[in-house]
Amino acid sequence: MSDKSSMEIQDFEKEPKVASWKKSLSLGGCTLRSIFPLKLLYKKNSELLFALVSADVIDPNGHNLPQYLFIRGHACIVVIQLNNTDTGEKSFLMIRQRRIGNGLLNLEFPAGMLDRNVSNPASVALKEVFEETGLSLAATDIHPLCDKPLFSSPGASDEGIYYFGACVDVSDKEFCSLNDRNINNADENEHIRVILCSREKAEEETTSLQARLGLYLFDDFFNKKINS
Known about the structure:
The protein is α+β, with helices and mostly antiparallel strands. The protein has two domains: about 5-70, no CATH class; about 75-225, Nucleoside Triphosphate Pyrophosphohydrolase, CATH 3.90.79. The protein is built from six helices and twelve strands. The protein has helices at about 5-15, 15-25, 120-135, 170-180, 200-205, 210-225; strands at about 30-40, 50-60, 70, 75-85, 90-100, 105-110, 110-115, 145, 150, 160-170, 180-185, 190-195.
């Protein structure tokens, strides 16, 4: 292996999302004996975006775990219910965008990857809400809907999702201004339409597992809060 290749691997292992995965393995009682990046994809700012790796990992009983892993790091999702203080109407603040994974217009909640902000998912959540919807929230507005990240495919990926929720009072003017708003981010090929949805419409239309789970966690958290 060349010196350059060795340096590239060392730099890769220092990336926060890779270090976070390695820490998770250790906390689970596993031992990482070696790791080799098969393919690395970087963002324009040189941050690691995705990595396909081959890893030699031993569990606490001495058994090898499957060899291949897709590292994408953790992400956050924010479930926001808007309360129109003038009309009493309540709607969820959602976005619709076309996704390469299925080619469809998907109805989702504002979300984003943590990238290098692995220790501060709440700050990323606030940033993503503003960037994707134009709604500005304070740190005190959002609440963790679960006390830990939730994993959808830990057999192949390290990604865990932090879920946040908020109930936000807005005037009728702001309520109406958010609906049908278009947000475009040319750097990331994002073309987003902001949508205000009733609970029934959101459940009926969305095919996103993450959005469905977000609705459930939102109900569970805020019902408990009301009844406590």
